[in-house]
Amino acid sequence: MSQHISFVQREELKNKPSSDALGFGVHYTDHMFVMDYEEEQGWHDPRIIPYGPLTMDPAAMVFHYGQAIFEGLKAYTTPDGTVQLFRPDRNMKRFNQSCERLHIPTIDEDFLLNAIQQLLLKEKDWIPTEEGTSLYIRPYVFATEPFIGVRPSKQYKLLVILSPVGSYYGDQLSPVPIYVEEKYIRASVGGVGEVKTAGNYAASMKAQKEAEAKGYSQILWLDSKENKYVEEVGSMNIFFKINGEVVTPELSGSILNGVTRNSVIELLNYWGIPVREEKISIQEIFDAHARGELEEVFGAGTAVVISPVGELTWKDQTIQVNDKNIGPLSQRLYDTITGIQFGKTEDEFNWTVQVDEVRV
Ligand SMILES: *Cc1c(COP(=O)(O)O)cnc(C)c1O
């Protein structure tokens, strides 16, 4: 796929937010990437145009049946001023896996990555440079055909928007309290839990709000069949360090195959720290704590990188992990992964991709 990407420059550029007040997903850049799909033409008309509202037919199928998928990755500025991405090939691949599961036409992965890089080059001034800040990249697709019969849409739109974001925690990692969900489930095997589709999030909002009302910042989901095995947390995968060994739920078909999750596993292997991907019950975690062997618990995802868990509540029991302190392994993983992402630690794994190298 070697289509030319057309460009329409915004007339009046926006004011950029100051880097100490970025938040997450609040501000958007001057331009966006858009592409359309029609059955007869395939994906066509790739363009970078001023960021702004879309016009949609009220019958557009996404509003009714929810064919919508997305990805999330970040662009980082390095100390020498270059811009880089972290393992973007994995996001492109997962983008297509999500498309396939929702019966949305896939897109050439190299083309999409190149389109993202071209957009980044146009929006380079929007990439924040303060410690810990980055430019969040959100590629997504949704069904646009005006039709309310139930079948896959024949028309789609693919967009990429960019948002400058702050560091999730400021300078310090802070352990969060987590609620083990008993009443609601997130996903079941054979469903869509292993892909990034909008509906997974829609289904989790009520449970998330109820947990927040009880004072927890996130939910830990259990499996849908036995309500027993640990799955994942909101938009993070989860890891437990028990008696010197790390364990994370295996890719069961109902959890997301996170890029951060995979990076953690590869780093642990490289460091010679035992790590296993397997079924793990919530009871085993509480038992390990009772034996004094639960050393660390942390989540892993692009937005937060590594998020230490300080407290877990399951039914009527609450346990504190590592006295609510950041564990040394959580800190080491956070420092190493962000070090590689921001070009401050040598990238021995070849995980980073320089944006400037891209042919435009
Ligand atoms: C995106 C996401 C993750 C984390 O994946 P990363 O590739 O590490 O960002 C974990 N769980 C869910 C449900 C997600 O949507």
From TrEMBL:
UniProt EC number: 2.6.1.42
Domain of life: Bacteria
Keyword entries, A-Z: Amino-acid biosynthesis, Aminotransferase, Branched-chain amino acid biosynthesis, Pyridoxal phosphate, Transferase
CDD domains found in the cross-reference section: BCAT_beta_family
Reaction catalysis annotation: L-valine + 2-oxoglutarate = 3-methyl-2-oxobutanoate + L-glutamate; L-leucine + 2-oxoglutarate = 4-methyl-2-oxopentanoate + L-glutamate; L-isoleucine + 2-oxoglutarate = (S)-3-methyl-2-oxopentanoate + L-glutamate
SUPFAM superfamilies the UniProt entry points to: D-aminoacid aminotransferase-like PLP-dependent enzymes
N6-(pyridoxal phosphate)lysine: residues carrying this PTM: 196
Signal peptide, first to last residue: none
GO biological process: isoleucine biosynthetic process; L-leucine biosynthetic process; L-valine biosynthetic process
GO molecular function list: L-isoleucine-2-oxoglutarate transaminase activity; L-leucine-2-oxoglutarate transaminase activity; L-valine-2-oxoglutarate transaminase activity
Pathway connected to this protein: Amino-acid biosynthesis; L-leucine biosynthesis; L-leucine from 3-methyl-2-oxobutanoate: step 4/4; Amino-acid biosynthesis; L-isoleucine biosynthesis; L-isoleucine from 2-oxobutanoate: step 4/4; Amino-acid biosynthesis; L-valine biosynthesis; L-valine from pyruvate: step 4/4
Enzyme class at the top of the EC tree: transferase
UniProt keyword Amino-acid biosynthesis, yes or no: yes
Cofactor(s) required for function per UniProt: pyridoxal 5'-phosphate
Pfam families: Aminotran_4 (PF01063)
Record InterPro entries: Aminotrans_IV, Aminotrans_IV_CS, Aminotransferase-like, B_amino_transII, BCAT-like_C, BCAT-like_N, BCAT_family
Listed PANTHER family: BRANCHED-CHAIN-AMINO-ACID AMINOTRANSFERASE, SUBGROUP IIII AMINOTRANSFERASE
Name of the protein in question: Branched-chain-amino-acid aminotransferase
Annotated organism of origin: Pontibacillus yanchengensis Y32
Taxonomic path: Bacteria, Bacillati, Bacillota, Bacilli, Bacillales
